[in-house]
Amino acid sequence: MALIVQKYGGSSVADAESIKRVAKRIVDTRRAGHDVVVAVSAMGDTTDELLDLAAEVAPIPAPRELDMLLSSGERISMALLAMAIHSMGFEARSFTGSQAGMITDATHGAARIVDVTPVRLREALDEGAIVIVAGFQGFNRDTRDITTLGRGGSDTTAVALAAALDADVCEIYSDVDGIFTADPRVVPKARKLDRISSEEMLELAANGAKVLYIRAVEYARRHGVLIHARSTFSSSDGTLVIDSRRAELLAQGEHMEEPIVAGVATDLGQAKVTIIGVPDVPGKAAEIFKIVAKSGANVDMIVQNVSAAATGRTDISFTLPKSEASMALKALAGEQAGIGFESLVHDDQIGKLSVVGAGMRTHSGVSATLFEALSVAGVNIEMISTSEIRISVVVRGDELAEAARVVHTAYGLDGDADAVIHAGTGR
Amino acid sequence: MALIVQKYGGSSVADAESIKRVAKRIVDTRRAGHDVVVAVSAMGDTTDELLDLAAEVAPIPAPRELDMLLSSGERISMALLAMAIHSMGFEARSFTGSQAGMITDATHGAARIVDVTPVRLREALDEGAIVIVAGFQGFNRDTRDITTLGRGGSDTTAVALAAALDADVCEIYSDVDGIFTADPRVVPKARKLDRISSEEMLELAANGAKVLYIRAVEYARRHGVLIHARSTFSSSDGTLVIDSRRAELLAQGEHMEEPIVAGVATDLGQAKVTIIGVPDVPGKAAEIFKIVAKSGANVDMIVQNVSAAATGRTDISFTLPKSEASMALKALAGEQAGIGFESLVHDDQIGKLSVVGAGMRTHSGVSATLFEALSVAGVNIEMISTSEIRISVVVRGDELAEAARVVHTAYGLDGDADAVIHAGTGR
C-alpha cells in the first residue's frame, strides 16, 4: 500500500461532470489499496471571476482581503469533490490550507511555505478517509491570516504535502499526457518522455514549457519528491520527474546512453527592449539593470553590441516577460538623462527557442547542430544565451514554430506519429 | 461613541454596485464616530447556486462538506466588502466564523451557538479597524470543523456578536423600511411601526412575517440586545425591537395606551392534512403526532372534530409547512393499519392569518373583532388557534389577502397612505 498525493487543476474540476470524473479516479486509486491525499484548484475560471469582482469594488484590492477572497475558490471545489467521493461510498474529508497545516510567511498573494504540519491529514488517513486539501492557500502563524501561494500554487501545495507526508509519488494531473519533447501544438511530431531529470524539467519550465510550475519542481527536487505528470483523461503513464543522479543511474542500468537533448521549449511571451546609444563607459550596464530590477521587471537574456569606436556609444538589448515591458520602459525613460542613452526600442514580436539536455555537459557540438538547423531553414538568430544544460536563441516570433520543428528533427527527437492533443483549456 | 453591529443580507450585497453602496453606508457610520462590526450574508443567490452544484455532484451531500461549501459564500462577500471599504480610505478586516470566535455545537447545517469569543474582533476594533464577519457560519471546537447556522443564520450571527461585544444596537438591514403592521404587498395601507416588543415580534415572525428571523429575535431577547430593523435603501429610522417590559414603560411614559394589536401576519406557506375516520379512543392523537414528529415535520395548528357517535370515529386536521407535508403523509400512510384511520386528505390551498398584540392579555373582545370582520367579508374560518398574545385562523388561500385587509382595517391599523415598497428580492 502506497501513499499517493494527487493534484487536479481547475480545468479538471471545471463543472459537476468533471468533478464526478475526478472523484471516480480518486476512488479507483483508493480501491487499488492506496492512501490518497488530493490537492485541488478552484473550478475552471473561478479565480479569474473573483479577481474581476475584486477589481469592480476596489481599484487596488487590499492584499489580505484578496487572499481571503481567492481562497474561497478552492473551498468550493474541494467540498464538492469530497461530497462526490462520499456519495460513491468512500469516506472523504476536505481541509482548508490552514486546517491542513500549510504554514506560510505573511506575503499575501505570493506566500512561501515555511512549514507543513499535516496533523489532521494524518488523523484522517489513519481513520481510512480520503483527504482533500485546498490547493494554492496557506496560513500565517503570526498574523493568523489566510495567504495564497501565487501562480502554480496548487502544484506546490501537492508537492509540499507529498514531502511532509513522505508520499511515494506526487501525481500532477492536467489535460496533457505528460512532458513532451516539445509543445505538441507547435511540433506535431513531439514525443512524450517517460522520464526527465528535475534539472532538465526546471530549464524547460523556465523557458516556456507550461505543464509543471518551476516552483513545484524546485520544491520536489529539494525534498526528494517523485513527480508523475499525467493526464486526467487517460489512465496511461505520464512522465516521471526524477532527480538527476537517479536519472543517470537509470540510464546506466538500462545500458542506454542518456539522450543529449531532452526537449525543445518555445516561448512567445517575451519582449525585447533595446537601449540605443548608451555611453560605453564602465558601470553603465550595472546602472541600467539596477533601474530595471527596481521597476519589478525580471530580465532574461542580455546582449551588448560591440562599441562603435567612432561614437563611443553602444546598444544594449534585453528580453523580459511581455507583461513587464511597460514598467521597465517607464523606469528607463525616467532616467534617460542620468544614463545618457539616446533612445528606447520595444519589440514584442520575438520568439524564444530553448534546447535543454543534461547531455550537453559531456557532449560537444550540441550548439552547432542548433545553429546549422536554423541556418538551413533560413531563420535568423537575434540573441543567444546558454546555461550548463541549455541553449536559448531569440528569433522572429512568426518563425518560432518552424524553427522548433527543424530543431526537433535535427536532434533526432521526432516520434513516429503525430502527438494526440486532448481537448481542454490548457490550464 | 457607540459600538454598532450591522447586518446586511444577500440582496444588499448582490453585486459590485450594491457592495459599494453598503461600504459607503458602513463608512458613514464610522465617520459619525462609531465603532462598527458588520455581519454579512453571501451575495444574492450564491447559497442557492452552491446548493444546486452540490445536488449535481451528490444526491445527499455529506453535511460536513456541505457546510464547508456553503461557508465559502460569505467569505467572498465579506472580502469584497472589506476591500471596498479599504479603497475608501478606511481600515477594514474580514473574519471567518472561526476567526471571529463563533463557537457552535457540531450539528452541521443547523448549528447552535454555544459561545462567542471575539478576541480578534476586539483587537481589530482597538486598532481602529472596521470589522467584517462572515454571517451564517461557525466552528466546532471538538471536531475543529466549520459549521453553518441554518436559515436566518446571518441575523443570528449579528445578534450574537452584538451580545458578546456589548454593542449599543444591532441594526438588521433589508430592503424594507422596518416592521409593518402587515405585509405591504398584501395590505397596501400597512404602517411601519416605530417600535415593537420582542414577544410580539416573535409571534409575528413565527406566523409568517419575514423581516426578522425568530431565532435572532429570541437570542436578542435572551441577551438584552436592542434590534433596529431598517432599510439599506433609506437613512430614515426603521423599527426598534425592544424588550416587553421596556415597551410597557415607554408606553406609560408617553401617556399612551399600548395599542391592542401590533400587526397582522399572513402565511401562504402552510398545508393542511386531514386524517379521516380515526377511531375515537384515548391515545390515538398522541400516537398520530408521535409518528408525524418522527417524520421530521413540525405541526402548527391542530383541530379535532366532534366524534360522530354512530361511527365511533372522528377526523383530525393539522397544519404544517408545505415542504414538510409529503414526509408526514408518507409516515402516516405507512402506519394506517396500526392507527386504523380510513383515509388521508392533503390540502395546500390554505392561508393562515394571525393577529398579534401584547394588549390581548388585558383587553377582551379582541377575537370578536376578528371573527366579525371576516364574517362581514364573507371569509370562512376553517381552523382557529390562539396564544396569550395571538389569534390565528386558517382560511382559503385565495381569500387570505382580502381577509388581511379587512382585519387590518377593523383593528384601526390602516395608515393614511399606501406603504412604499422598495424594489428588491424581498428579504
How would you concisely characterize the structure shown here?
The structure is a homodimer of 427-residue chains. Chain A is built from 13 helices and 20 strands.
Rg for CA atoms of chain A: 23 Å
| Oligomeric grouping of the chains | homodimer
Sheet with the most strands: spatial strand order of chain A: 3-6-2-1-9-11-12-10
Gap from first CA to last CA of chain A: 31 Å
Helical region count of chain A?
13
Strand proportion of chain A: 15-25%
* Number of DSSP-assigned strands of chain A: 20
What is the percent of helical residues of chain A? 25-40%
Fourth CATH level, the homologous superfamily of the domain at 3-253 in chain A: Acetylglutamate kinase-like
Q: What is the CATH architecture annotation of the domain at 3-253 in chain A? A: 3-Layer(aba) Sandwich
CATH topology of the domain at 3-253 in chain A: Carbamate kinase
CATH class (first level) name of the domain at 3-253 in chain A: Alpha Beta
Domain ACT (chains A, B): 273-358
Organism (chains A, B): Microbacterium rhizosphaerae
GO molecular function (chains A, B): aspartate kinase activity
EC number (chains A, B): 2.7.2.4
Question: Could you name the key traits of this structure?
Answer:
alpha/beta, 20 strands, 24% strand, 13 helices, eight-stranded mixed beta sheet, Carbamate kinase, homodimer, disordered C terminus
